[in-house]
## 1
Amino acid sequence: MQYRDVIATALGQIAANKLRSFFTLLGIIVSVTFLIAVLAIIQGMNVYVQDNVAGAMIGTNTFQVRRSPINITRFADDDLDRIARRPIISKTDAAVVREVMPDAEAVSMQSGWPTPIADVTWRGRTVGDALVLGVTAPYQTVQDYRIAQGRPLTDIDEEERRAVVVLGADLAEKLFEEVDPVGKDVRLLGEWFTVIGVNARKGQVLGQSFDGFVLMPLSRFEMIYGRRNTTTVSVKVASAEEVAPAMARVEEALRVARHLRPTQDSNFSLETSDALVDFWRTLTRVLFAIVPAIVSIGIVVGGIVIMNIMLMSVTERTHEIGIRKAMGARARDIERQFLVEAIVLATLGGLLGVLSGWSMASAVAAASPLPARVTTWSVVLALSLGAGVGVAFGVYPARRAARLDPISAMRAE
């Protein structure tokens, strides 16, 4: 028999037993659907974080001087102890960076993680869960903030520790609605602050607004919260190509300023947006390891079902097998026929699972902020798993069919 005849026979058997074929494939369909949908969401999140979140938090032409690295999960316990003993990033460090980077577009300081959350009140109206950020004036340039109303924070506000704030667009809209917020006094953290400006809208990422914040001078922030151990310095240069050489200059200057010997490791970290992407991928790598393991259980179950159905099919078609052998079919022809049937079944299940998973991922992306991206390699993986299951669990039924005695098989009812 030619392979096209074998495949046509296999499809004919599937078409003749639609309900049985469907339940045979159900385990593989469900498993592959879950695999495709989860991998699509994870892959979509990876791309989204790289293109949107990381760039929004740390621009591609920006780097940060931090006390500890962003992706701290990659360090051993001894390294974590050394990182915990590092000195905080101080205003002296920021001054060193400004001195060595006179050509930078902006060098700023900002309060670090965890960012305080507070209620903001105006005339009895309160908006909760506002992020409170203590920053120096250049931070607004680093983050590409644009003022829609009023004015931005200035160096004078920082030097005089003024009780002034700039509001994010969402916060201002919810708190003041149609009223001009500039010049109004809001209550925040038990103190009164004058609104001097409102930022232009930045938008949302994964359903989370980038406009629900309060900016205040870092000096005023430290009066309320104290100096943060995670305060960072951000440096914005003209282009992404200038980041690497600028980081080298800053690292050398800070090592000299902190009196570090050549044999000593730096007691600070320099981070770019790539660090955020790497940190996210470290987290999702765990899911990439767990998901196939869970899916493999369903695949194995589906394979066992296919093997049982194929054994049942061999029993039901014993008479047919005897006739084929009597007409000259060789044992390998019979074996090939049943093996191809198992592979076609499993591959069809994988294909249906891919389509179902694709649809599920698209539905999740349409109904939620979670992005989804079905990649070629995940589709190839799913189809390969299906075909592999067909081979692994179809061999035994195929060999059993091939070994049937033609005389005994023809006598079977």
Note: The first strand starts at residue 62 and ends at 66.
## 2
Amino acid sequence: MFKFIKSNFFQIIRFGIVGIFNTCNSLIIYYILLYFNINYLISNFIAYICSCFISYGFNKNFVFRSRNGSIKKYYIIYLSSFVINMFCMYLWVDILNISNTIAPIITLIITVPYNYLLSKFWTFGVVKKKYSHTFVICAYKECRYLEQCILSLINQTVSSNIIMVTSTDNDFINRMAIKYKIHLYVRKGKSDIQKDWNFGYRKANSDLVTIVHQDDIYEKNYLEQILKFYQFNNNVLFLCTDYYVLKDNKKELDINSKLKRILKFPLRFSLFNGLKWFKVGALSFGNSINCPSVTYNKLLLGSNNIFTSKLKFSLDWDTFLKFAKGKGKIGYISKKLICYRIHDEATTVEFINSKERLKEDIIMFEKIWPKFIVKFIMKFYVRASDTYGGFNE
């Protein structure tokens, strides 16, 4: 029960607001009719019908925010709720001799939960969609962790299409593709992360796409959780999860991953994850989103290139910020469903050693904050960056 209330907290609050509004209308009508000596059952009937007509639009558009609401189902619920209401009123007043001014308030204890649960799961319940999904592995050179990554995708609890893309075609990558029967696409031209990611994104012929880094490991229930989320949140542009740091094949939780959880916290709630201020806020103190944990919704983002940043290292952060400033929601599952590997051969290290990362981080902060605030932020940010990966992974 507690878990249900927690996950639907803001929806319940909205339902309560509408309920209070309708109840006030209903009670006003009820007491006015009583004042004119109209029978309490007739007064209750008229008041209930009036509130029923008003509440449908509010519940559809404000409470459940559903495109699938059935007015027929809604009135069936409220008709049955009315029968319960009338029975309770008769029980309280005629059988138990409770005052007819108090009886309707007591009845709400029964009818409100009844109306909410049936409205949520029957009238305005989300129609589940079966999404297709593709894991796109971006392979480079001869990475010793590639096979472990592939196995983590193959061993998912829910099967998915898996493809591999590369701009550094070699025998090792070809052997891995043949061994695990993975379709390999080779992009011609100089190796470039942005071009490779876009290439893989375009090659994925599915509704959802996860761009996989070759050295990371996905928990076996990663895709199961992703698909479950999208079934009930089909208006989300992209979905991210939490992660472990994988160092020397051991899972760790560093200070940066904990800070990122705090920054992403508002995105857990549907009330906030579509608001520009909260979306940008989650990215305003660094890239709080772990790139390989992200699944993109091609139905909303389209099939063309989505990575359009001029930056090299921070292109993922820049891309997420672009989406955050536009329309649509950012989904977030606060479960650690991916192991982000830290090792000396990673591209991240090359950027850190060349100081390119710091330059791009400043550019990103200046897209969000005035320059005098950026100078202040960077004093603390540089300290966080001393740990490999910093905020921007």
Note: The mean pLDDT is 86.
## 3
Amino acid sequence: MKCAVIGAGSWGTTVASLVAPFVPTVIWARRPDVAEDINRKHRNERYLKGFELSSELAATDELDAAVSDATLIVMGVPSHGYRDVLSRTADAVPRDVPILSLSKGIESGTLMRMTEVTMDVLPDHDRSVVGVLTGPNLAREILDGQPAATVIAMEDQEAARSIQQVFGSPRFRVYTNPDVIGSESAGAVKNVMAIAAGMASGQGFGDNTLATLITRALAEMTRLGVAMGGDVRTFAGLAGLGDLIATCNSSQSRNHQVGYGLGHGRELGDIVEEMSEVAEGVKSTRGVLALAHTHGVEMPIAEKVGSVLYDNADVGHALHELMTREARSEYQ
């Protein structure tokens, strides 16, 4: 096996460094200086300052060179650039090579998940080996060797188990499931909910508020994911509840950071401008709301996040409207 990781952000770099000791691995970096940093110093100071990477990891800023002869392609590109990057190397990708997405976003305009974008760009590719790696995976904690788990969702479970053996380690436990739709939709929705959690923290609210928010966020995530065709069991697993808890609780989460700033009354543009990496939820909230409308799913928390992000609504007022909605059964 040869693994090509496309995208040298914090999570793409972390995944590449985890895999490199076990199989030949090359990572593509858009910036030549990042590739040089990885090759010469075994570091990615731009996105993972202070962390040492596997010495076996090689980097390049030549996209086709990264993909050449790869038997596994891992796409660590944010949703807004995913299609463009994959299109640039489409001719070099054999139709039977497994492609694993790390992105937790929705493409603007098309409302496609990243596996759907993959099949749109590569229409002749074997759909059964196009999947997603997702879960409660904060890059810095995993690179630090802290115990964590993830899930590989892919229709072809034999292929998923093969990748599972490569990615797993005593500190990084890998599970599999066949529910690509549910796993991917959960990843996109949790980013929206992490912004909401950040807003609550920025307003100074404590554990009761956060627990309430996470619980009701899980209900919204499950409703939409099942309506889209996902398996209800997925949302109680790593891709759903696991990722939701980690991202809503952690100041390491870029989406949480955005929400926290908004909760403190800062302007969205100023918050985003200071960030070195993309907070997927800022753009994906619009897509999530559009999908909810398409499938007739009510998502009040996501709607209020959207009103703050796009309509300049006041965070405190949005929370008041959520708390004073008509009382109803918990099962609705």
Note: The beta strands are 3-6, 25-28, 58-60, 72-75, 99-101, 130-134, 148-153, 172-177.
## 4
Amino acid sequence: MDVSIIVPVFNEAASLAILHQEISAAMSNSGYGWEVVYVDDGSQDESLKVLTELAAAAETHVRVLSFPRNFGQTTAISAGIDHAAGDVIVMIDSDLQNDPADIPAMLAKLAEGYDLVSGWRIRRKDTFLTRTLPSRAANSLISWVTGVRLHDYGCSLKAYRREVLTGFRLYGEMHRFIPVYASSVGAKITEMPVNHRPRQHGKANYGLERTLKVILDMATVKYLVSYSQKPIYIFGSVGVGLIGLSVLDVVYLLLRRIIIGEHMIRSPLLQMGTMLFVMGFNSILLGLIAEQLTRTYHEAQAKPTYTVRRQINIPEAESQRKK
């Protein structure tokens, strides 16, 4: 199997037959072997019934996973990846706003040597104040914090080589941060404009409340990508900074005592300096504990701290022994 198209589904019964027809039309003349993995994320409408019918009619082209309850889009995507057979993974929403006709062009981009092709909804057909504007702000913030600059992290339509999806698990709302994880293992990333269509059926499952979750997940991803192997760098830096502030605070109090004769104990700055020193010291200790946990994590599982793209003239037995 060349291409696996993963489609998370939640209460989209009215869209599924049309979506599958469009996917089939886009892929039938693409020259690739392909399959669609639909993941029913605890839908409460007739989505599972429609998917069952599609699977029976399409035979090997359709796989269906069904959850007993709603676990969220990230979990559905993770399950789809686990059960997909393709060397290339394409993700697309089930609400018909993404256009399956863009998939062959994304596969052509991958063929140029890229590992990840991200869709960019230049002309987005969503409510500006509640969807588009917060999304633009989030994209700018994520690009700045992570250093992986994309215009549209929230676009679900993306194509990946399978190897850049290994080595990490997805939690929370972290599916949008897959490009950041992929970049951390050296993936070559590009983006391309894709068609975006108005929603035809149902209603959006996300609103402004999602923004806070994205910000919190972004902080987690930044830590995991940049500091998970050396947590002392972030905790130690914070600790040294706090201790430095406490030293400056005490020096200031000593100067005031010498110059104007003010007693140090009468100033609240003494208590503040003491608190800063204690917080800084605790932060350094927390970093040392995190270092121990990191080493335990990697050594107990024999988990390597690197990713191998290719092996040349390395015997299989030696490769497995090093794992």
Note: The chain is about 50% helix and 10% strand.
